[in-house]
Design goal:
single chain, 191 residues, six-stranded mixed beta sheet, 17% strand, globular
Length: 191
């Protein structure tokens, strides 16, 4: 988070003459704040940020503010707990990527959320990325065999460029997985 925060600060300082938005905590759309007028996600990539640290949400919002990929806007949804995340995932099955902290309300809340997404919600399309600030806890080499995640990163190593690159790879993989799940004649693009 610190490295990404420094990247964001550098970006803000170098673009102060342009109209770059400043994100305050009140600007983050938390899961428990109702927004029934939210449009269907046609034309956007929905990315869920799950972390109990408000600073992680602010830095992620600043880093991705105004960022588009494949001519589609990246829309962030925010949850500060596994329970909020699961609610958002039930309400928004079109979320393409979830960036999930491991340690939140419990030592393994993020890991439990991963299992719930795949098993309880039955969502096999979403790309699940673990983000942790405590890499020492993630040394078990069988972790990926036991928990269904697609990628892993340490918060301290995630620069702004690395976050965008990570999301590009995950969106591409989501798109390929979604295209593969469509039967011919149902909109699948055959290559």
């Amino acid at each position: 988070v610190l490295r990404m925060w420094r990247d964001v600060q550098n970006l803000v300082y170098t673009t102060m003459s342009s109209e770059s938005p400043v994100v305050e905590e009140d600007d983050i759309d938390w899961a428990d704040e109702s927004d029934d007028d939210q449009p269907v996600s046609a034309g956007v990539w929905r990315v869920l940020v799950v972390d109990d640290d408000p600073e992680v949400h602010r830095v992620t919002e600043l880093t991705l503010s105004g960022w588009n990929y494949q001519q589609r806007q990246v829309q962030l949804l925010h949850a500060s707990s596994a329970a909020q995340a699961e609610q958002l995932l039930r309400e928004n099955p079109d979320i393409c990527v979830a960036l999930v902290d491991v340690v939140m309300e419990t030592e393994h809340a993020g890991l439990d959320l991963l299992r719930s997404v795949r098993e309880s919600l039955g969502n096999r399309s979403i790309r699940l990325v673990l983000r942790t600030g405590q890499p020492g806890r993630m040394q078990d080499t069988t972790l990926q065999q036991r928990f269904p995640f697609d990628d892993y990163c340490q918060k301290a190593e995630l620069t702004a460029a690395a976050l965008r690159g990570l999301l590009q790879r995950q969106i591409d993989a989501y798109q390929a997985r979604s295209d593969a799940s469509l039967a011919p004649g149902e909109g699948a693009v055959l290559h």
